[in-house]
Amino acid sequence: MKIFVINSGSSSIKYQLFEMPAAKTICSGLVERIGLSDSIITHKVFTDGTDEVTIKNLDILDHAIGLQEVNALLTDPKIGVIHDTDEIEVVGHRVVHGGEQFAVTTIISPAVKEQIKKLFPLAPLHNPANYLGIDVAEKIFKKAKQVAVFDTAFHQTMPEVAFRYAIPNEFYYTHGIRAYGFHGTSHKYVSEQAATYLNKKDAKVITIHLGNGCSMAAVDSGKCVDNSMGLGPMNGLIMGTRCGDIDQSVIFHLVNQLGYDLDQVNTILNKKSGMVGLTGHSDMRDITAELQKGSKDAQLAYDMYTYRIRKYIGTFTAVLNGLDAIVFTAGVGENDALTRKLSISNLEYLGIQLDEEKNLKREKGIREINAVDSKVKVLVIPTNEELEIAQQCHKLLH
Ligand SMILES: Nc1ncnc2c1ncn2[C@@H]1O[C@H](COP(=O)(O)OP(=O)(O)O)[C@@H](O)[C@H]1O
Ligand SMILES: CC(=O)OP(=O)(O)O
Ligand SMILES: [Mg+2]
Question: Where along this sequence does the record place binding of substrate (predicted)?
């Protein structure tokens, strides 16, 4: 069965086509700069361990045009991988916020779409784009079942003591105000890989997902028991453009003393804070380049970013009452050795020790980067949210 997975962002669409249950990637790609000029599609077709890359530069005004272009590549007479769009039986969508309504993978119906829409205010950078991806996919992949896999689902096992806020009860019971947690598909995927690697079903694992958005999860015996994000994907770690944990008094101060309105504050905290607020750059590669030029801002930003991660490692070790492994994943976690080094420095008390040489190596697959006598394993595990989504879709339909 062919399952097409869509991870639709505000200005990009990531996609992968799988043959399931073999879990074989047929092709994958990325549509970038949607809505801006000079959009780019990078499309890769995989055959017998090699990949053939096609790059298309064109103006892609919106997600509908983006997905139509992708569909044209899928069915292209020369480089196409299917003859007809109808060969795709399932389209799996990453949906960031599923609230408390969606604890499992769900077939999309008009009612499900309505619920996803209701959650827009809780994930304003993500759910609208996910919704748009579903809307467009329904029109292009008419015969396919559309399935939603929610970032929040894996975190639904958190105990109430972890997910409730100490605000009046009615806000939870009437309005669902609580911590949800995100990047769940990634935390689930890498924590399962870690448990398999350790050959320990009841492993206590801290997973650290560092992409544009960043979050950590505490996982005990395959179940999430806590995470660093909250009602929406803005708090916890310092991210590319989001502030992470701040004292809520800052918001009142910005409004009452400095005269910003709430929409402006939202934009500041979601889009202009984090690494971009501290250095002018949100991409870790640019910040590394600044650091190499001796930028003090870049140094402080690195220190703050990794100090926050260290704090959460301490917190989650206490929550788990023990620790078998720490896992780094996603764009920064998989690629940036300095982030990994600083994040686990000065944690010898917890039995965490890095092997600096191993940390610098670039190899594919799961890598162990702890020193031989480290009590805790430190692993780099490439995430694959798209594969996890395809697997969950396949499981749901069989
Ligand atoms: N080689 C690298 N070195 C350091 N950081 C990298 C590297 N490659 C990617 N990144 C970082 O990863 C981020 C994107 O991670 P990714 O997991 O793809 O995020 P998202 O899925 O949220 O878009 C980039 O913004 C960049 O900061
Ligand atoms: C939930 C979230 O932060 O997602 P992303 O990292 O894709 O922005
Ligand atoms: Mg991501």
Answer: 94
Give the C-alpha separation, 8 to 31, whole Å: 9
Considering the chain, tell me which residue range(s) the CATH 3.30.420.40 domain(s) occupy: 2-150, 200-380
pTM for this model (two decimals): 0.95
- Per DSSP, the three-state class of 139 is helix
> Residue 37: pLDDT above 80?
no
| pLDDT in the model for residue 49 | 79
Average pLDDT over every residue of 64-69: 94
**Does any ligand 1 atom lie closer than 6 A to the CB of residue 333?**
no
- Residue 213 among known ligand-binding residues: yes
Cβ-Cβ contacts under 8 Å for 134 (sequence gap 6 or more): 93, 95, 108, 113, 116, 146, 148
State how far the Cα of 389 lies from the Cα of 335, in Å rounded to an integer.
Answer: 23
CATH code of the domain occupying 2-150:
3.30.420.40
* Ligand 1 centroid – CA 83 distance (Å): 34
Write down the mean pLDDT value for the chain. 96
pLDDT of 152 over the 90 cut? yes
Assess contact for 97 and 178: CB atoms under 8 A: no
